[in-house]
Amino acid sequence: MVGVEQLELVGWQSDIALPRSYAPYAPEAFTVERIVLCKGSLDSPEREAFVRGICAVYPCVPVEERLDTPHNRVEIAEPDPLRRLERGKRTLVMGAARVENVVRVNRNPNAIFPYRQSFSVYGFCPYGCAYCYLTGSPGVWFSPTVKIYVNLPEILAEVDRRAREEGQEIVFCLGKFEDGLALDPLTEYSTVLVPFFANHPYARLLLQTKSASVERLLDLNHGGNTVLSWTLNPAPIAERYEPGAPRVDDRMAAMRRCAEHGYPVRANITPVIPDANWEELYLDFICELAKCVPLRQLTIGGIRIDPRGRSLLEQRMGKENAVLQALDPNTADENSCAFYKPGLLRRLFAGIYDTVPHIRPCSTRYDTHHSRAHLVLDFEQ
């Protein structure tokens, strides 16, 4: 494990600093054509060394220093939304995030996201999933760049403060507004995050990802305080709807490796994509997943997609794609987000009950905030 500078927090001792003396490398399927250094990125020798080390991974990529520009104000000069998104995913931005904006309270817990706290050390994601719920959000729509927040110690200090205010065990989710692991080859943030939560008296980590880059996780002392959750779909669905994301077999292999090293492992099949012979495809895949990976929990459910996301999906895949065809034209929430037609997943859920091995008694948890049904399965250990 790499060494990190020591920063003593009131009441306890933790390694909480930017990683140093490590070897960053390029993440798979992340093509970088532009690097922008934004406000806060060079504010200390430690930050500058960290940022320059990442830039060195891409020696032929031009680096712009825009040190008066916040990380979320980097424009992509492209009027077409889909092309702007594609260019944004090839732009790497580094800067300091406002702590109060990236350590968030979840005011509407639901079946798929029951956690009351989340935090971000990255912004957006390098993968190209066609159904991405982030692409239509205001910040991503304006600046769809891939971001690394360099003020990791300050972010974790705020996590510590909130957890101590709570005074009892509380889960913080990393991966609600980004992929929690995709950029770890560049940052090695996992080697700071996992020990932080392992040693904290109250804070626990749920890390959500599609990445297979788990090498740095395996030798860390996690103390059971970090839960790893992978988003998955059957391979034929993933190949069409998740371009750029790691192969499903590679994700499952990463899940097995982490489980062998004691991490609690979960899977998240959302959204289900009702394409071709989808019910049989998903049922076979879920049975295989349950046999091959020692899961603690599996969540299966539908979609919530806003008008901008729908427009991008239509541009990518045409009006006749399976997701748009399955949306209910008669209902939308307060943000004009659409959902699948009622009952679409009912037969799949029934088939799962009948065939998936080793599940404990469970039920369909109806998500009243997002108006969509999710099946949450707990597995016997």
Main features:
alpha/beta, pyruvate-formate lyase- activating enzyme, single chain, disordered N terminus, 5-stranded mixed sheet, 13 helices
Description:
The chain has 381 residues and is α/β, with parallel strands linked by helices. It has a domain at 101-130 and 153-378: pyruvate-formate lyase- activating enzyme (Alpha-Beta Horseshoe). Helices cover 31% and strands 18% of the residues. The chain has 13 helices and 16 strands. It has helices at residues 45-55, 81-88, 99-102, 138-142, 152-166, 184-187, 190-199, 235-241, 248-260, 278-292, 307-317, 322-326, 346-355; strands spanning 34-37, 63-65, 91-95, 103-105, 117-119, 122-123, 146-149, 170-174, 203-209, 226-231, 265-269, 297-301, 304-305, 338-339, 364-367, 372-378. The strands form three sheets. The protein has a nine-stranded mixed beta sheet with strand order 4-5-8-9-10-11-12-16-15. The protein has a five-stranded mixed beta sheet with strand order 2-1-3-7-6, with no helix packed on it. A two-stranded antiparallel ribbon has the order 13-14. α10 links the parallel β11 and β12 (297-301). α10 packs parallel to α13 (346-355). It is globular and about 60 Å long. The two termini are 30 Å apart.
